[in-house]
Design a protein that fits this description.
- The protein is an alpha/beta fold.
- Helix content is about 50%, strand content about 15%.
- The chain has ten helices and five strands.
- A five-stranded parallel β-sheet has the order 2-1-3-4-5, with helices on both faces.
- Helix 7 packs across helix 9 (about 185-200) and helix 8 packs across helix 9 (about 185-200).
- The longest helix is centred in the C-terminal third of the chain and has 15 residues, at about 185-200.
- The relative contact order is 0.11.
Length: about 210
Amino acid sequence: MMHYSMSPRFKVGVIEEDTHYRHELVLNISRHTDLSVCLHTATTTAALSFLQQQPHLLLLGMPPGTQQQVEDIQVLKSLHPAMLLVVMTPNEDPQVIQRAFDKGADGYILKTDLFHNITRKLLHMLEYGQPVVSQELFRYLLYRNKEEKPAPQTNLTKKEREITDLVLEGLPYKSIAAKLNLSLNTIQYHMKNIFFKLGIKTKAELFRMYYQH
């Protein structure tokens, strides 16, 4: 009897200067049946030649006090616009993450998180297009930006604004439906209208509206 193995659905790239951490991360990502690692290296410069592998998602490590990696985000995204880019930081620095999102990052993870949690978050992002952002950081960025520049919600109804806020808090559609006592189909219908009114197509674009000034 012949056995056919399913090939991984998503390719992931890793740029991380800490060799030990990078190898452990790559090993854990590779263990997941839906994920494969198509490149892993220490620097952005070294990674550029591997981008023809066209990863679906690229993890970019950011050591404390470095500015160059933030600037690299724009370069990497311009070379492969369809690729999701997630930054990795050793601690939650809202100012660094704000700049990263301004340059085009799609999400972020903490390097202190458990490897299996990181893998789960990456897969969730790849499947649903919802950025990886902690509740604390989201609230910081959301309320900071609301004070400086309200999000473009002028055309949204009260119900659409309510649903948008819940989506931005990281709740999946099923949980929003239960919370608002609505059907899942109704939530999905509202989301289509929200995306149309805001001129966007994905949750990632919706999140970026709130992060960017």
